[in-house]
Each structure stands twice: as C-alpha cells, then as structure tokens.
Amino acid sequence: MEQSIKLMVDGKTYELPILVGTEGERAIDISQLRQMTGLITLDPGFANTGSCKSSITFMNGERGILRYRGYPVEELAEHSTFVETAYLLINGELPTRKELTRFSVMLNDHSLVHEDMREFFQNFPRRAHPMGILSSMVNAMRAFYPELPDRTEEEETNVSFARLLSKVRTMAAMSYRISRGHTVVYPRPDLLYAANFLNMMFYSPVRPYEIDPDVVNALNAFWILHADHEQNSSTAAVRLVGSSRVHLYAAISAGICALWGPLHGGANQAVIEMLTAIQANGGDVAPFVARAKDKNDPFRLMGFGHRVYKTYDPRARIMKKVCDRVLNNLKRHDPLLNIAMKLEEVAIKDSYFIDHHLYPNVDFYSGIVLRAMGIPLNMFTVMFAIGRLPGWISQWKESIDDPERKLHRPRQVYVGKNKRNYVPIDGRG
Ligand code: ACO
Predict the structure, then answer these.
(1) Which pLDDT band holds residue 2 (cuts at 50, 70, 90)?
(2) CB-based contacts of 247: which residues, under 8 Å, 6+ apart?
(3) Residue 112 CB–ligand 1 contact under 6 Å
(4) Are 364 and 317 in contact (CB under 8 A)?
(5) 333 tagged catalytic
(6) Does the annotation count 306 as an active-site position?
(7) Ligand 1 atom closest to the CA of 364, numbered from 1
(8) pLDDT bracket for residue 122 (50, 70, 90)
(9) Is 267 in the pocket of ligand 1 (CB under 6 A)?
(10) Which residues, listed in sequence order, are joined to residue 4 by a DSSP beta bridge?
(11) Which of 166, 172, 287, 338 is within CB 3.0–4.6 Å of 111 for a Cys-Cys bond?
C-alpha cells in the first residue's frame, strides 16, 4: 500500500508521508506542508483533521465501534466498574487486584473537599447552572491544592488525578445539596465510588437512603459509556489549553466548559427538555420531526446525529439496555421512554435522517436513566463530566508525555479587508 502521497503545486511535485494507525486508518502527514509549499490546509470544525497520535481510544464511525485501550466498550459496560475503567484509561492496562485496591484507597484519601471551598459554593446564585459552578471550582482547585515542593512530578501528577476523580464527584453532590438548602453529606470510606456518590446526593438524616445495587450498576455503566471518546470537542479543549503548559486543573476546567454546550454534553439535558415538550404537546412526535427537517427552523432532534458516527452510536444501544434494565428493576414507568422510542422509530425510517446518517447518540436514552436514579435535570451534564474525567485526564497525560508535543496553534485563511489607512473620526461616514 502507498505510504506517501504526491501533491502537485504550481507544477512542482511534493511527496507527503502517509501514516497508518494500528487499526489501518491512514492519514497524510502535512506537518511540513507549509514549509515545503507555502500552503496551509483549511478544515473548519476539524472534521477531517487529526490533531495527535493517540493509543487510548479507538472508534470507527462507519462500523459503530468504540474501544478503550483495545477493550470493547460493550464488555467494559457489562463487566467493569467506573473506577477500574478509569484506571485502564489512565494507565493503559486493567489493574491487578492489588493495583485496584491501591487506586481505590487513593481515591478515598482524596475524596474530601477543602472546607473553605464550601464558602464558594454557597456564594453562587441559587439558579447558577452547576456546569458553570463546576468549571469555576475545578479551576480554583489549583489555589486550594498548590504543588508541594517535596513531591516528585510523577507523585504530584498522580495525586492531582486522584483529587480530580474523587473531589469532582464530591463537589457535584455538594453543589446539589447546597442548591437545595440541604446539609452537605461527606463521603464514606466504606462505600465504593458510585454508591458513595449516590449516598452523598440522596442521604437524609430523617430518611436514610437505601443504596440500590441496580442503581449502582446503572450508574457505573453510565459513567463507563462516557469515560472517553477520543478527540471530541471537550477533550480537544483539554489538550489545546493544556498545550500552553497551564496546570491540569485549568485544562480540565476548559473541558468542562466545552462539554456544557447543547451540541456536546449539554445534549442529555436538551433531550429531556425536548421529550417533555413533545409530551406537553400531546405526545405526537411528527411535528418535531418535521421541524428538525425544516431548513428554515434551527430546531434539531436532540440526541440525534454525531460528527463521527454515521451509524448507530454503540453507546446508545447499550444505554437503551441499561435504561430498560433500571426501569424494570425499579419497577418504574417513564412516559418519556415511550416518546423517545416512538421518536426513534419514526426518525430512523425517515429519508432525511437516513440520507444525513442521523441515528441516536449516547445522550438519547441517558437522560431517562438519570431520571430513574433521581438525578435532577440541571445535573445531567455534570454527570457526563464526572464520567468523562478519566478520558480528559488520560488524554492530557498522553499529550504531556508526547515527545512531539507542541503548543496548539492553528492557522487561518484571512478574508478581511486589505491594508487601509486610519480615518480620523470627523472624516468618517
Ligand atoms: N437533527 C436534524 N438535523 C441534523 C441533526 C439533528 N440532530 N444533526 C445534524 N443535522 C443535519 C444538519 O442540519 C445538516 O444538514 P444539511 O447538510 O442538510 O445542512 C447535516 O445534518 C450535517 O450537520 P452538521 O451540524 O454539519 O454535522 P456535524 O457533524 O457537525 O453534527 C452534531 C454533529 C453537532 C452532534 C449534530 O448532529 C447535532 O447538532 N446533533 C444534536 C445535538 C446532539 O445530540 N449532540 C450530542 C452529540 S454526542 C456528544 O457530544 C456526547
């Protein structure tokens, strides 16, 4: 197979190398293109641009494949826990029992949040969106947890990873409790990661919260399905901000901001809002499908479509199973599930959606899972953020360790005015 490509510019031929990944995908290496030819490439939205080589996550959008470090996400969602999957993403291999215990102990040791940080939470307006609060708090972590001079860089980095994984979960529950005017519940050392989160969210001194193993399993699967997704918008933000060599907390905070948007992680909240609007409109999905197809209407079917998947998102398929299982086990009926299924049935048979390769994505059923757990709507994207942390951390780590590491600084094609002279204000108009 051809390992280089020839490019003709102004009658001269240049040879550009082709890189081949371990799964056979091919990429033209254009890093020397401008130096050789004076040309740059233009790719708005980076739909066709690889920004790095990575050995963390493999996805194939045409075949609906997603693997973390080689392991199919279906197998991880079925058999692993979120903490074990986080270890896998960050360290590259599944942990031995001893390694997993050590990792869990570290997460437990770093699960408390600095008491002074609570003041911050309390001073945000009650109606502030938790994603805005979370990104600010994660950025503020550098002030509360400065680097310690007696630690090696590796020790410091590992502690920062544990802090993020553990404290972001505590902070998420804390912000929910404070927003409700409830007392903060501290993490318990006897509870595992997901159960601990549920307890911090829902424990009440007057009605102890019973941790349901089915809910714990569903939460582990939910987080595993969100744990990484190669160079998505928020991960690209983490890598880009991190490339300026700012500290890890600032880079992760940037990822949280990018995730917040409704075209990315904010879609899980937007899906429930859309399904609720359909319900309020009598449950007929047809007008919503028609609006999504109308070029003059900005409305889109939330939870549908993906930049990379041009077939069914494999995570959506698993999420639907998790959704059925949790509703069944909890003996709950959610009318929004019926609406979602009806919407999917109508949309995937519609030529507009077929022609545009639009299928349900991970967010389509995830909101119904979160509702069944009792998670409030404005916390949905925070739940995604907790899940995506191992991905952001492992991608940040990979970029830091990359010998080819460079400041991310794209080029542009300037299409503005040519040079003109300054006109004093009285001479304008
Ligand atoms: N509903 C209706 N039409 C859609 C939708 C949708 N959900 N998604 C894309 N399209 C159409 C666009 O109107 C456009 O049509 P045209 O070519 O006829 O003008 C075409 O499909 C391509 O759309 P783009 O926005 O260029 O495609 P892109 O790859 O950038 O879109 C995205 C990906 C942003 C996810 C898009 O599908 C979308 O907005 N979906 C809804 C929001 C959503 O669910 N986001 C979550 C994504 S998963 C995640 O981040 C975890």
Answers:
(1) low
(2) 142
(3) no
(4) no
(5) no
(6) yes
(7) 44
(8) confident
(9) yes
(10) 17
(11) 166
